[in-house]
Structures are given as structure tokens and as C-alpha cells.
Amino acid sequence: MRLPKFEYRTPQTIAESVKIMADVGPVGQFVAGGTDLYPNMKRRQQTPNTVISVMRLAELNRITGDGKSGLSIGASITLTDICENPIINRDYPVVAYAARTISTPILRNMGTIGGNLLLDTRCNYYDQNYEWRKGINFCLKKDGDVCWVAPGSSKCWAVQSSDLVPVMVAIGAKFRLVSTIGDRMIDAAGFYNDDGIDYLKKRPDELLADIHLPPTDGWRASYQKLRRRGAFDFPVLGVAAYVHLDRAGAVDDAKIVLGGIAPSPLEVKEAGEALIGQPLDNDHIQAAAEAAYVKARPLDNTDFVMNWRKQMARQYTLRALKELVTTP
What we know:
Elements: E1 7-9, H1 14-24, E2 28-31, H2 37-42, E3 50-53, E4 63-66, E5 70-74, H3 79-84, H4 86-91, H5 93-100, H6 105-110, H7 113-117, H8 130-135, H9 164-171, E6 174-179, E7 182-187, E8 207-213, E9 220-226, E10 237-245, E11 251-259, E12 266-267, H10 269-275, H11 282-295, H12 306-326
Parallel strand pairs: 1-3, 2-3
Antiparallel strand pairs: 4-5, 5-8, 6-7, 6-8, 9-10, 10-11, 11-12
């Protein structure tokens, strides 16, 4: 498969980047590592006329702060650098761990944290070459008018398949978006739409500039990933768990966020409520895991049987929470 023809632009600053995007309009696309965009272009899922590289912008390649004050991560920082950064490993180990589960070492050398957070939604009927998709008369997400996952639905059910997204939602990260009309901050929890086509609350002219992690303040977080192979594969279920304990050892805040089963990350509020005000013991962990199982509704558009993936929501929530019992 070959890339379609396109113009490649290499601006030197954020301001120049967003100005180019404003000038070219809907036919433009930002790119950093390109590990998602370029394969999609080869499959003709995305066909921008102008590709604007932001990989080497100095403003997007900085990590500042720490766990006490909060951390800012430039969107073009590679996943390998996330995995190896000493401050992230010390203060935000869940972020380093989740990044380490993404794809393979070679692709992590190119892929960026921003790219993973903006990852296109995925589906067995969508992530195929052009000829395969043409053979089924395409799908609702691209060039067709039927969602083959749920033919009676007017909604696209392609799945949000990032490993870092559930983690960012769970720990309360914020994203800074930049355009020619100004900057804005948006909570990770409010950034993703439950729609496989319109899956981001981001305008096409906006550039994800950096990711802001809150001060840790003693909270604990973990991530568990289900996939067929131990590397390369996207998650078909991801579970991010976050808890904060009060001085008496009871949970005073908790979040359980599921990824890989819906067009957007799913926070299971009932699972968090099962923990709040209680000790982080086996009985309450079991109750939270059961709540996650009840709310998990995977569809048949990724690897493994969907009913089994639902069962795994219970088991992977158990694993994620039990890890926090001993993790400081």
C-alpha cells in the first residue's frame, strides 16, 4: 500500500503550525510520529492534502514540573521518553507503565504521547485496506452508510483504543489546545465523545500542545491491559484504577475507568462509589469489580468474544485494585 500524494510542511513554532492549519482548512492534518496517521492514509481512511509536522517543535518536546507541583508533558514527547523519564517513573509510574504497554519498542521510539491520546477509533470493519472495505460497501465511519457492528444503529461504534486515555481520565489530567484564536484547557474526562466518528471534543484547527498532570498528593493509580499478544496489540480492554486514602486508611476518592470497549473511555461511577468511605479491602474491591462487570458492554468489533471480554472487566478491575493495596 502506498501513501497518497500530499504536501508536507515543517513549521518551526506552534504559532506557525496553527497558522498553516488555519490557512489550509479541512484538507490539513497535524502529524507527529505518524504511527497512526500514515497507515490510515495508506488505507485511504484519511486523505489530507497537507500534512503539518509538529514532531520537532521545541515547545512540544518539554517535560516540566514534578509530582508535588504537577507535571507538564509536551505532546510530541515520544512514548519511549515517557517510559524512561525518571520523574514520570518516580511520581507517575502508572503513566510510564501504560506507555510501556503500547505497541513495540520500535514504534514507541516514533509514537508520541499526544498521538496516543488522539488515536483514531478502531473497528474490525474499518481498519482494513480500501479494497476490503469497498467489498462490504464501506461502513458508517468512512464512505458508507451502515455500521456493520450494529446495522440498525445510526451511531458509529468504533472503539477508543488508547492505553493512556483511561489513565489520563482516571488521574484527572488536563489537555491544552492551541489555535489561531487562542488557547483552551479541557479535562481529559470531558475530551472524548461517545461516537466512533466524532470522537474528540477538538476542532480540526486545534493543536494538542501539552498534557498537564495534577499533583499526586498521595493518590495511587494502576493500569491493566487485555490483549492477545504481550506486545504490539491494541487493548481490547483496559482498566485504569485511581484511589486516594484518608489518614484513617479509608478511601475518600476513587475512579475506575474502562477503555477498549466503547467509542469513549467509560468511568464506572458505581465502582468508585463502592470504594469511597470504605477500607481498600477484599470485600470492597470485589464490589467495585462487580460494578465494573455490570456496566461493561463490549461489542463484537475487536479481538476476542465480546461476552468473554465482559467477564474480563471483573477480573482486570480486581487486578488493578489489588495492585493498589500494596502500591504506595
